[in-house]
Amino acid sequence: MSPKKIDLEPVVLESGIEVKPVYGPDDVRASATDLPVGGPGEFPFTRGIHKLMYRARPWTMRQYSGFGTAEDTNQRFHYLIERGQTGLNVAFDLPSQIGLDSDDPMAAGEVGRVGMSVDTLADMETAFEGVDLNKITVSLTINGSATTMIAMYAAMAEKRGYDLQSLRGTAQNDILKEFVGRSTWIFPVEPSVKLVGDTIEYCAQHIPKYSPVSVCGYHIRESGANPVQEMAYAFLIAKAYTDHSLARGLDIDEFAGRLSFNFDIHGNLFEQVAKFRAGRRLWASIVKGYGAKNPKSMWLRMIAGGGGGGLTIEQPENNIARGAYYALISALSGTQTMALCSYDEAYTIPTEKAARISLRTMQILIHEMGLTDTVDPLGGSYFVETLTNEMEVKIRAVMDEVEQQGGIVKAISEGAIQAQVARQAYLYEKGVFDGTVKKVGVNVFREEEGDDDHDVSYHPFNEEDTARQLAKLAKVRAERDSAAVESCLAALKEAATRGDNVMPATIEAVKAMATVGEITGVLKSVYGAYQEPLAF
Amino acid sequence: MMTERTPRVLLAKPGLDGHDRGVKVVALALRDAGFEVIYTGLRQSPEAIVNIAAQEAVDVIGLSILSGSHLPICARMRDVIEEAGLEDKLWIVGGNIPHGDRPKLEKLGVNRVFPTGSPFDEIVSYLKEQLP
């Protein structure tokens, strides 16, 4: 009797890898690369950067939050910390992110809208009132105006008596990805990279435990890239900052250990887990290739979670389930820090309840599901190991292609990466509309009536917040020593013009209560403004 | 019925919002559907958008807003459109627009709101119907 032949539909992952119905040891052997799997905490760190991973310490829980004024945001921070959150991830409003003061005409209608408004050091101080900066590490989601915000954070911490030698924290400060997605750029590409270099150099020398850059594949994926491109472009960007820092005379081991990463989680579970396992060993080998001696320099330290692009406006409560799976993937992937988009985040700034559900989702994984009991629980799976090998090969291939065409800085400056990512986003949406890409509640299992919008309450935008922010800014301007501000800004201009590191002068300026807009204005007068390439 | 001339659509990002995945995707879809698309790029003021609309003699002004600032932006936009005498242009808005705000936008003169996730076909057939 001949076995019944079953015709199976091919399964192809977003990264272009075809999935077989069954995997075995031969698949693992056939797909092996030059890099071994190794043990956890051992080069090339496929299984995790630490020996004991979550068994020794669970991931940091760091929900993205911030809105209105620094007072409003401070309250939300305390709400989350009181409920067991172990880190903070600060959302700034758009004027603060692109270096405009709240009273700038361009900022009208945008103050405190998508994050907290910061004009001066006084706001930074208010935001962290009552937060123990030794216990709670703070991540500043700031890019275009990162030099100013890092300066304010350091000045605030110093004023409160913290020693900068031991101050921890992270700034996102990955400007190259802002040109691809997220878009809070200010200056042209070249001086933008130089400013990132200033923060790397300054932190290496003065705030050595601080992570000045978190390289983001996240937003590139959110803009349309597939998981392979997400990793490849992030590594190329991280290499660009590394090359720049080396060219300034820093030693690789002086700064590489403080570079961190931010990746996205949505889509196929196994593809994401393999992406991180492959990414970890690829990054380790890249940094080793730069001549690093310290294993810590080779660690792919990361925040992974979010998954905003996977959430849907339709049947928003389904996003709670999606968030739980994203957290699971993140835990199976060996991330250091987790943040989840809340179920209402496709619409609005999360309510307290929605933010709490995200936090509880992560806590359930730790306390009920056993996700912290053993290291890399999917390691050794024929499927996962094979997929890890295949992802490594694919990521390398995309990196090689961009490097052969002149490198990532050139590709971003010319808009080539942006065009590629936009084209891919278009193909994805077409797939959703024609049903080849399935989204539950969107193109399968739809409800006829009231599919979107029900049971979601919108974050109330408070006009009075703007008035309060403007009043605070006016008060600071009136009370500060304007001659001191002028001389600090002049010194900053001189440093920028000479090509010096702008951080020392920026720190002096923020201490004198110069505003974000004033500092950015000075830098713009030296560097000019970015013009978007619109070819896509 | 469509005229001989290829209909021209201006797509713009007003305000400071940097979410441009949607607007680029819609630009590609409209281009594939035979429209001529002009995309302004990010951080455009209502004045700049209306100037381009007038200079390029577009048939449609499309705004993409995902920051939640759609009401104040569209209120300013309406004033500038009126000053420029461009009320005859078809004005559409896309992005994260809550249900409750859609009638408010229509009251400001927006002809049609296409919330996030609107199928390309819906946008294309609406424009084809509305354009002379």
How does this structure look, described?
By secondary structure, chain A is an alpha/beta fold. Chain A has a single domain (50-434), classed as Alpha-Beta Barrel (TIM Barrel). In chain A, 47% of the residues lie in helices and 7% in strands. Chain A is built from 20 helices and 12 strands. Chain A has helices at residues 25-31, 70-82, 94-97, 121-127, 146-159, 175-180, 189-206, 218-222, 227-247, 252-255, 269-289, 318-332, 352-367, 382-404, 408-413, 416-434, 463-479, 482-498, 503-511, 516-527; strands spanning 11-12, 18-19, 60-61, 64-65, 87-91, 137-141, 169-171, 210-211, 213-216, 259-264, 302-305, 337-338. In chain A, helix 18 packs antiparallel against helix 19 (503-511). The longest helix of chain A is centred in the last third of the chain and has 23 residues, at 382-404. Chain A starts with 10 loop residues before the first strand and ends in a 9-residue tail after the last helix. The mean pLDDT of chain A is 95. Chain B is 41% helix and 19% strand. Chain B has a 5-stranded parallel β-sheet, with helices on both faces. Chain B is globular, with a radius of gyration of 13 Å. Classes of the chains: A alpha/beta (536), B alpha/beta (132). Chain A binds chain B through residues 94-95, 97-98, 100, 106-110, 113-114, 178, 181-184, 222-224, 312-314, 346-348, 422-423, 425-426, 429-430, 433, 442, 452-453, 458, 461, 532, 534, 536, and chain B through 15-21, 24-25, 27-29, 39, 41-43, 45, 67-69, 72-73, 96, 98-99, 115-117, 119-121.
